Structure formats: structure tokens, C-alpha cells
Amino acid sequence: MIEFRGVAVSVPVLRAGRLAESKTLLAGVDLRLGERRVAVVGANGSGKSTLLRLVNGLVEPTSGSVVVNGLDSVADGRKVRSEVGFIFTDPLSQLLMGTARDDVELSLRGIVPDKAERRRQATELLAARGLDGVADQSVYDLSGGERQLVALTSVLACRPQVVVADEPTTLLDLRNRNLVAEALWGLEQQVLVATHDLELAARADRVLVVDAGRVVADAAADEAVEHYRRMMS
Fold first, then answer.
1. Which of 48, 114, 174, 207 sits at a 20 to 30 Å CA gap from 219?
2. Domains plus CATH for the chain?
3. Model-level pTM greater than 0.90?
């Protein structure tokens, strides 16, 4: 369960080196998200990425609170980050090691002390995603979809209860977009995805529409996506 309780986020605006005012990124967010697959749609700059980053403490609320499975994102930040895996738009921003296998092994280091066992588990996790054939290739030689699946595998290796993905299919061609979409919506964990891909959003159990820092629609997928289409027309 993800709960937003009266959440607002604002940031200072500097002019000529002085604090002039504050800019509101989100305001008035009150949500209880218990569905397994939740999508967030909205224009660039609408606040949807800020909404996602609140869930694992990458952004802290200016007011209100965010609670994930009973843990406060600020007071229990470390525990929340162990509960919530975050996938970025560009997987190269989070793949830290040279090869897929090494990156997954790095994720396992905190929970699997034995090196040989880490390698075995990393190999098994990559094979489950169809990545065993590229496990020892440089991440720079992988396709965009393969990189995103490696990033997902590394996140899942930490055994999170919630997976948050910020526009995970934006940089992908159709084939790889489909692979990543199937992987995300097939997870057992609760999944929260921000996306411009309305076909991806339409498969969610619940869709939030964000505009100008506020949740302006919150409904089943068909209804919310149609609301967004009308809003953008």
C-alpha cells in the first residue's frame, strides 16, 4: 500500500542569486494506492516524475507525508528504499558495472555474502529474463531493451516489495517496448509506472492523470486515459 497524505512539494526559485519565490511541483495529493498495477500519465513537467520519486524518498515532501507499507518515506527512508526499487528512463544512469552479470551481482552483495552464490543467483536471474546470452557483454553493447531488462533484473535482485518505473519505455523501439511492458506488468510486486505510452497505461488496474502539479483524474484505465486524451486535444 502506497499512501500520499496531504502531500505538497515546492522548490525555491533563485533570481540574481537571491531567493525570490518558491515553485510548486505538486500540491494537494491524497491517495491510497493498493492496486498491483498503477500508471501515472501527464504532460512533461506536469509533476508525474516528482510523484514517483516521492515513493522511495528521492524527493521529500515539503508538507504532508508518504507512507509505503507502513513506513514513512522520510523518517524510515533507508527501510523505504529497501522496499521500493526504482527504474529510470535511461538504464545507463543506473547500471554501475561493466556487464549485466556484474551489475546484478552488485545488487546481490548486501543480501548474499558468498561470492560464488552471488554469481549463481545472478546467472539464474538473468536467465529468467532471457538475458543469459548477453550476461557477460558490455552494457554499452546491449540494445536499449536489453539494458532496461538488466536494470529491472538488478532492481529485482534486491527483492523489493514495490517497483517504480519512470517512463521505462520512452527510449525503446516497438519490440523492446513490448518486452519491457510485459516484464513490468507481469511482476508479482506492486508496480507504479509513469508513462507517455497510453497503450502501456491502458493495461494498468488504475490510472492517475497529473496536470500542473495536481492529480486531476483518478479512475480505471479506460476512463482515465480517455480523460487525458480529451485534456490534450
1. 174
2. 2-94+159-232 (3.40.50.300)
3. no
